[in-house]
Amino acid sequence: MARKNIALETSLVVAVVIAAFVMQSVISQTQPPSLPDSVKEEAVVDFTDDGEEEVVVSEVEEESSILIPAKYDVNLADLGVEPNWLELDDYQYTMSKEEFQHLLTKVFTVGDYWEKWFSFEEEQVVIRTHAADEDREYRLAFKNDVVEKQPSSYWKGRDSFIEMNESSPLLGIKIAIDPGHIGGSYAQLEERQFVLAEGAPPIQEGNMTLTVASLLVEQLENLGASVTLLRVKNEPVNPFRPDDYLGYAKSKLEQKNAVLSGATLEREAAKLFYRNGEIRARALLVNEKIKPDLVLCIHFNAGAQPDPENPILLEDEHFHMILNGAYTEGEVAHDDERFKMVLKIVQGVHQEEVGLAKAAAVSFAAEAELPPYQYSANSSRAVNVADNPYLWARNLLANRLYDCPVVFYEPYLMNGKDSYTRMQVGDYSGLRYINQRLRPSIYQEYVTAVTKGLVDYYTSKGSEELEGK
Ligand SMILES: [Zn+2]
Fold first, then answer.
1. 326 phi-psi bin (left φ>0, alpha ψ -120 to 50, beta other)
2. 405 alpha carbon – ligand 1 mean position (Å)
3. Which residue from 97, 129, 206, 334 could staple onto 142, CB 3.0 to 4.6 Å apart?
């Protein structure tokens, strides 16, 4: 009896702590989704300095900040920082050996190279934590008949939303929308702009994804979801600019024995800015402030030009969705990427992504009437998922760094014959006659497809066994 009381008191204390934590996150969400300006000052990295000082991402109590590491580290992804493997302590005894093994070997890697880093024992998996030190390891115990714990994460899967509301099928679901790329004056720098011929209006992916995302917010909120946009204008979320990455770029090119010139440095710094630093800034928003149940990454695709100097419009358009997985040999060898991969596995992210992406793909294929895109059968960076022609696992920065289920939408070709015309026409309400067909705007069609897929997924819960196990 006495023991029971202690247990009760303990759970009360835990409940109070959780409640305080929830309140804290509610309060922090009311702050605008921006990064503190003060970090800019700390970002100045003097690359003539050979000191050992290392700048890392710090988790400050009130505001999280993002910093640029002083030096490139060959054992980490670009701009990566050393992970804290002890974060996996929360996942001891949460997953069976069979499930871990299946996800690691069939979804998250494409080949045998995982064997260099993971060794399976009867009751645990031993993970090498440091590429630079063979002896350092982390042991993760599998759940068994005696000990089984629930994994912890800030996101909730579909099955957690038990209450179904007739008019608000997405009630209580916290969704973050990531309008892919930056757009606007950055479209050319980030190579997400298509210009058919001199003088033709440019098609900028970052502008179009923001149009879709803005329309989606209203639509999903009408259905009960609470929705946050990762950006609301065609400007970077990242507080840094290309020049801020010059020191890190120099360190990287030096360590890789690459050609070091003004031009190569500038190019490397620009890439680090828009391709990497930008996503890292968004990841900070997702993981520290918004903590959503899922992130929708909105994109438009483009096809390879036979002759880039003389761009043409392509006939065959397609659609596919990307989930996290298919880490390459080099990516698994990075300590931070290997850590995130394990975190994805033990959090059960894949199972949630598969369920959602399946429903989303059915809906998109029906609305947009686009055939599936096919990666090469021997691809080392893409794995087909759940025998669904539209679903592909790839290790992209956003779906790796956002610590929750993430689905990428990759429909329409910016240089596709049909879509190009629709993109030029822009957004409109109702139907118009375009390319011999009566149809909604390409943006409205996108929004309808995404919305229907989400509603289908969240209203059909419990009726099907989630695949991917
Ligand atoms: Zn894109």
1. left
2. 18
3. 97
In this prediction the pTM is 0.85
Long-range contact list for 434-442, CB < 8 A, 24+ apart? 442/412
DSSP state of 147: -
First-residue to last-residue Cα distance in the chain: 41
Q: How many independent structural domains does the chain possess? A: 1
For the beta carbon of residue 246, count every other beta carbon within 10 angstroms.
18
In a domain, 88, yes or no: no
- How far away, in angstroms, is 231 Cα from ligand 1 center? 15
Domain with residue 232: its CATH number is 3.40.630.40
Contact assessment for residue 176 and residue 33, using Cβ atoms and an 8 Å cutoff: no
The pair of structure tokens assigned to 59 is 């988790």
What residue numbers bound the domain in which 367 lies?
158-459
State the distance from the centre of ligand 1 to the C-alpha of 308, rounded, in angstroms: 18
The CA 140 to ligand 1 mean position distance, Å, reads 36
Ligand 1 center from residue 373 Cα (angstroms): 15
- Spell out where 132-290 has E strands: 133-141, 174-179, 193-194, 203-204, 226-229
Q: What is the pLDDT of residue 163?
A: 67
Tell me if 318 is assigned to some domain. yes
Q: How far is the CA of 260 from the centre of ligand 1 (A)?
A: 29
Instruction: Report CA(262)–ligand 1 centroid distance (Å).
Output: 28
Q: Is residue 78 part of a domain?
A: no
- Segment-wise mean pLDDT, segments of 10 residues, the chain, 469 residues: 42 44 39 35 34 38 69 97 96 97 97 97 97 97 90 91 81 97 96 92 96 98 97 97 97 96 97 97 97 98 92 96 98 98 97 97 96 91 95 98 98 97 96 96 98 94 46
